[in-house]
Amino acid sequence: MKKTITLSLAAIAVIGLMSFETLSDNGKSGKTTTGCGSCHGATATPAVSVSLAFTPAVTNGYIPGSAYSVIATVAYTGELLAGIDLAASSGVVAAGTNTKILNTEIVHTGSLNTTTTGTVAFDFTWTAPTTGDVTFNYAGLAANDNGGTSGDFWQIGTQVVPLDITIGVGEIASANLNLSVFPNPVTESATISYVLAENSTVTANLINIKGQVVTTLCDNEQQAAGLQNRKLMINSSIAKGIYFVAINVNGKSNYKRIIVE
After folding, report:
1. Other C-beta atoms lying within 10 Å of the C-beta of residue 205
2. What are residue 51's DSSP bridge partners?
3. CA-CA distance, 154 to 108, in Å (whole number)?
4. Which of 8, 87, 159, 248 could serve as a FRET partner for 133 with CA atoms 20 to 30 Å apart?
5. CA distance from start to end of the chain
6. For residue 174, which of 192, 194, 200 has the smallest C-alpha distance?
7. Is residue 138 a contact partner of residue 35, using CB atoms and an 8 Å limit?
8. DSSP readout, 59-98?
9. Residues 6+ apart with CB under 8 A from 205
10. pLDDT per residue as tens digits for the range 196-230
11. How far apart are the C-alpha atoms of 99 and 110, rounded to whole Å?
């Protein structure tokens, strides 16, 4: 009887150890802000590299409601194992081939996270929200699989993906505002014209495709009813590309797309 009890306790101990290792291999959530130091020691010098690649690309920002395939690559010279913990501030993430969801975050599964090249790619999908900038917080881990913390390194970071204003906003102009820009494309200057149906409070800006203000033409200015003409000057600090003239009249926004050449 004693022998049987001893064997059972040993078996329980082995099972407990296996469970702990599986939990560790499968990744942990909540590390995107605190890092992995509680289990893996200090951060790396030079830093562990973590990069996010989106398909389709989010060069100008995301398209509301669209689904993206995302690759999170963890890279560190000499690593044998890699791990990831990633959280999106909005939108919905779904697990890929070597990731899973843990407390709404993307973490590694313990399979397909070994490497001989110093990089591991973790894949998942992300469905974008309807509006607002999205912040991806992540912790990337590089480990040498020696059973201790020596040689294990990690890094935390963020990547912000804005709304694609060229899709999310587009051209919106009230029929009675008659917003126009001439000439368009613009090289040195253009005249912005619009018609106010009544005395109004007007703010007018030139914004880039990320929604950032480049030039302010007027700010909460009281303007009389009728035709308004404003001169837009393109100085040397404004790069060539797509912009929007954004005019807010009594709290309602209107946009006109222009090209700076």
Report:
1. 18
2. 73
3. 14
4. 248
5. 89
6. 194
7. no
8. TT-BPTT-EEEEEEEEE-TT-SEEEEEEEESSSEEEE-SS
9. 213, 214, 215, 216, 217, 245, 246
10. 999 999 999 998 876 788 999 999 999 999 999 99
11. 8
Contacts of residue 223, defined as CB under 8 A and 6 or more positions apart, other chains included, come to: 196, 199, 200, 201, 202
Say if CB 74 and CB 47 are below 8 A apart.
no
As a whole number of Å, the CA-based R_g of the chain is: 27
**C-alpha atoms less than 13 angstroms from C-alpha of 6 in its C-beta half-sphere:** 3
Which residues, including other chains, have CB under 8 Å from residue 129's CB and lie 6 or more apart?
64, 65, 90, 91
Report the amino acid identity of residue 217. Answer: L
| pLDDT score recorded for residue 225 | 94
Question: Which tens digits make up the pLDDT trace of 80-106?
Answer: 889 999 999 999 999 999 999 999 999
- List of domains in the chain: 27-165 (2.60.40.690), 169-260 (2.60.40.1930)
Distance from the Cα of residue 246 to its chain's centroid: 24
Q: pLDDT tens digits for 144-200?
A: 877 766 778 889 999 999 877 665 555 555 557 889 999 999 999 999 999 999 999
- 159: tokens are 């990547």
Asked whether the beta carbons of 74 and 119 are under 8 A apart, the reply is yes
Q: What is the DSSP string of 139-188?
A: EEEEE--SSSSTT-EEEEEEEEE-B-HHHHT--B--TTT--EEESSSBSS
